[in-house]
Design goal:
The protein is an alpha/beta fold. It folds into two domains: 144 residues, NAD(P)-binding Rossmann-like Domain (Rossmann fold), CATH 3.40.50.720; 177 residues, Lactate dehydrogenase/glycoside hydrolase, family 4, C-terminal (L-2-Hydroxyisocaproate Dehydrogenase, Chain A, domain 2, Alpha-Beta Complex). A six-stranded parallel β-sheet has the order 3-2-1-4-5-6, sandwiched between helices. It has a three-stranded antiparallel β-sheet with strand order 9-10-11. The protein is globular, with a radius of gyration of 19 Å. It contains twelve helices and eleven strands. The protein binds nicotinamide-adenine-dinucleotide and (2S)-2-hydroxybutanedioic acid.
C-alpha cells in the first residue's frame, strides 16, 4: 500500500490535491506538511472514511517525521503568480523553498517518487536534481516535473472547438511548462478533429498561455488551483498504479539521461543538448522505465519545439547555477 506526502498541503493546490489523494483507497498514509494552517486542514480531511490515516506536520522541525517512509512526495509549496508576472518571476522565492524541501527528501526518503508542481517547473526540477546529486542520492528515474495541467487543458480546449471530441482523449504536450516552452502535439488527434491551420494556431496558443487566463480572472488572488489539483492528482494516481504493478505512460518534465536511446527522438527534433524536457515517459514501480517517441509530429510542431529549446536551456541553467554557485 502506498504512502503519500504533500508539501504545501494547506495551500490553494495543496488542499484539494490532498482531498483527492485521500479518496484513493490504495493510499494508507497521507502526510500533510505546510508552514501554516496544516493542523486544521488535515483534521478536516482526516474524518473522510477512506483507508488512509492523515497526519499533519507543520514547520521545518516536523519535515523529517513527515517524509520518513514515504513512497511519493508531491510538492505544490511556494508562491503563485499575480497578473503581469511570468513564472520565472517566482524563482526568487520558490527556488529556495524547493531546495530546502528536497534536502528533506534527500535526508529522509531518497527512494521516493518526487513530483514537483512549484513554479517555475523548468527551473525547480533542475534545482531538485542538483540537491539530490549533492547528497549522492540522485536517481533521475524518480524525479518528475508535473506538466499534466497542460495535457488536461489540451483535451478540454480541443473539445471547446470540436464538441464531438471526447474530452478524456489524452493529447501529448512536450517541452517545458511556461508560455512558448509548452508544445502541444495536436496532430495526434488531427485525423479525428480536422482542425484548420488557424484553429491549430489558436488552440495551441490557448494551451501555451492557459495559465494566464486563470491568473487574470483571479485578478491577484493567485493562479490555477482546482484544475491543477485535478491534474496533479491524475499524475499521482498514475504513479500509485505504477507502484502497484500497473505501468503507465505520462508526459512529464524529466531528466533525459534516464533513457539516452529513447531521448534521441526528442534530441533530433531540437532538444539537442537539453538535460530536461517534457516527454512521453513509460513509468513503472521504480519511476521512468523508458522514453517513447510520439508519431506524426507536424512541421508547425517542430517549429514550436525549436522555439522552446533556448528558453528551457536558460531555465535549466538558472536552476543548476542556483545550487552550484
Ligand atoms: P498557495 O499560496 O495557495 O499555496 C502555497 C502553499 O505553500 C501555502 O500554503 C504556503 O504556506 C506553502 N508554503 C510556502 N513555503 C513553504 C515551505 N517552505 N514549506 C512548505 N510549504 C510552504 O499557492 P498555490 O496556488 O497552491 O500554488 C503553489 C505553487 O504551484 C506555485 O508556485 C504555483 O505557481 C504552482 N503551480 C504550478 C502548476 C503546474 O502546472 N505545475 C499549476 C498551478 C500552480
Ligand atoms: C498554470 O499553468 O496554470 C500554472 O503554471 C500556474 C501559472 O502561473 O500559470
Amino acid at each position: 500500500m502506498v504512502k503519500v506526502a504533500v508539501l504545501g498541503a494547506a495551500g490553494g493546490i495543496g488542499q484539494p490535491l490532498s482531498l483527492l489523494v485521500k479518496l484513493n483507497e490504495d493510499v494508507t498514509a497521507l502526510n500533510m506538511y505546510d508552514i501554516v494552517r496544516c493542523p486544521g486542514v488535515a483534521a478536516d480531511i482526516s474524518h473522510i472514511n477512506t483507508n488512509s490515516t492523515v497526519t499533519a506536520f507543520q514547520g521545518n522541525d516536523s519535515l523529517k517525521d513527515c517524509l520518513t517512509g514515504m513512497d511519493i512526495v508531491v510538492i505544490p509549496a511556494g508562491v503563485p503568480r499575480k497578473p503581469g508576472m511570468t513564472r520565472d518571476d517566482l524563482f526568487g522565492v520558490n527556488a529556495g523553498i524547493v531546495r530546502d524541501l528536497i534536502q528533506g527528501v534527500a535526508d529522509n526518503c531518497p527512494k521516493a517518487l518526487v513530483c514537483i508542481i512549484s513554479n517555475p517547473v523548468n527551473s525547480t526540477v533542475p534545482i531538485a536534481a542538483e540537491v539530490l546529486k549533492k547528497n549522492g542520492v540522485y536517481d533521475p528515474k524518480r524525479l518528475f516535473g508535473v506538466s499534466t495541467l497542460d495535457i488536461v487543458r489540451a483535451s478540454r480546449f480541443v473539445r471547446d472547438v470540436r464538441p464531438s471530441f471526447n474530452a478524456h482523449t489524452p493529447i501529448p504536450v512536450i517541452g517545458g511548462h511556461s508560455g512558448n516552452t509548452i508544445v502541444p502535439i495536436l496532430s495526434s488527434v488531427q485525423s479525428e478533429v480536422k482542425l484548420s491551420e488557424d484553429e491549430i494556431k489558436t488552440v495551441t496558443h490557448r494551451i501555451q498561455f492557459g495559465g494566464d487566463e486563470v491568473v487574470q480572472a483571479k485578478n491577484g488572488e493567485g493562479s490555477a488551483t482546482l484544475s491543477m489539483a485535478y491534474a496533479g492528482y491524475r499524475f499521482v494516481a498514475s504513479l500509485i498504479s505504477a507502484i502497484k504493478g500497473k505501468p503507465t505512460t505520462e508526459c512529464t518534465f524529466i531528466d533525459l539521461s534516464v533513457d539516452a536511446q529513447g531521448a534521441q527522438f526528442y534530441r533530433q527534433l531540437g532538444a539537442t543538448d537539453l538535460e530536461f524536457f517534457s516527454v512521453s515517459a513509460n513509468i513503472g514501480p521504480n519511476g521512468v522505465e523508458s522514453i517513447q517517441p510520439i508519431s506524426g509530429i507536424s512541421p508547425f510542431e517542430k517549429e514550436l519545439i525549436q522555439a522552446a529549446v533556448s528558453p528551457i536551456a536558460q531555465n535549466i541553467a538558472s536552476g543548476v547555477n542556483f545550487i552550484r554557485k
